[in-house]
Design a protein that fits this description.
66% helix; mainly alpha; NADH dehydrogenase (quinone) (non-electrogenic) activity; membrane; two-stranded antiparallel sheet; disordered N terminus; 527 residues
Amino acid sequence: MTYAAADLVQSVDWVALAPPTVVTVAALVLLVADLFVDERRKPLLGWGAVLATVLAGLSLLPLVGERRSTFCLVGDPGSCSYTADTFTLTVQLLVLGAALITALLSLTLVRDAKLPAGEYWFLLLASTAGAVLLPAARDLATLVIALEVASLPVFALLALRAGDRRGSEAALKFFLSSVAATAVTLMGVSLLYAATGSLHLNRVATGLEEVDPQLETLAAAGVVLTLVGFAFKTAVVPFHFWVPDTYVGAPVPVAAFLSVVGKAVGFVGLILVTLLAFPGHADTWAPAVAVLAALTMSVGNLAAMRQRAETRHSAVRLLAWSSVGQAGYLIVPLAAAGYMSGEEPLRVVGASLSYALMYAAVNLGAFAVATHVARSAPANRLTDYRGLYARNPPAALALGFFLLCLAGLPPGVIGLFAKVAVFGAAVDAGLGWLAVVMALNVVLGLVYYLRWTALLFQPAADPAADPAAGPEADPATRPASASGVRARTTTPLRGPTALAVALTACVAVVLSGLPQLALRFASTTLF
């Protein structure tokens, strides 16, 4: 199966392409504008990035309820490189929402850390553009390009702070793991092209069903290597080793972006290649994904349980391990889809999408509060959250609600419903053992989420008694309490950070009150 000259791409649907186009153009405009804007007006670039994400989100409205494709082959109109459907729009909304929250959190970071504004906003929007493009990709070349466009700018974002050794180390670890993932993915894609003669997902699926017996081993190797590459990006165990140190070394807003958008691109890539390109090889990848899901949620939750205030662990490191555990829940319906037939796989994977929407909102909210706390406690240890309610009730209540959502406890019922949808997908597929593993891991998650929540309402400790509290806990810089003891202080929750916390809290509250807004994807054919 080869491409003829007449099979070249044809007409361009700019309405379908509007979301990634708006973000890309805005990134270039802000980079050029930085050359002509004086220092006093640099903050306007940040608000320009915020506006760009909003406009890109609005460009999704004309596409709601439609299925539009572009860059299609002349000889085969069903083989297109870009398709805007329900799945695409939902993931694009998730990515743009995450980029909006990250931009709001970054406004203060860029100002206080004196980061180069033009470069920062260009890199953030460039990564967002790749992430927005990826769910619409329907050929392996576009998929890999979108994945790299989403990943490459993050290397620079991690290392943009001059003289930051931990940031440079985080960037190096992320770079090396990403390069390895890309190399493996490209090897897999090249083997698939050799076996099927095509890069379009639908043609790859057909080619794998009709592959020459002499090329069956080659095709199977291509399937495995491609899946391993995307597993790296999703931080699935055992390809998760880069996550904790990378998150801790990154600026907190960048860690928030990685935890949602970075995970989303790998997760979406896995969905596209397994369900659209490799459905005939489900007996190969479904058992593997099921085992990886069990390992990922178990390793992530067990490691998160080890992060304790008594040992002065980082709150961001706990969120990093939590995100690894949550990745395990995300891919459970994907494993279940491999054991189903007909249109059931396309519906059951909607449970993953429902869970991703919940996770994105509440995880970004938790990182938003962590960003706020980091302003007065740069070390961002769990001990810095002890007594947060007494110092800053809105921040403590918001963080407590986000943690309860992640744990799946009332009033954060959207977390409970999302977990039930994922659990039901495993049961419906006959994966009873995986459902049991998931239930045990939910209990493990309760331990560290509730332990952190309780910490928020405990009496504040004397920072002078904490030898590892760092210069931010110097008693000379702390106001005295009525008893004469110097108390840890927290700046008021205001400005763009307050807006980010409020937006994520509103989304979490609405989803908890109207869970059907997210859970409807669990019973919808997405493609």
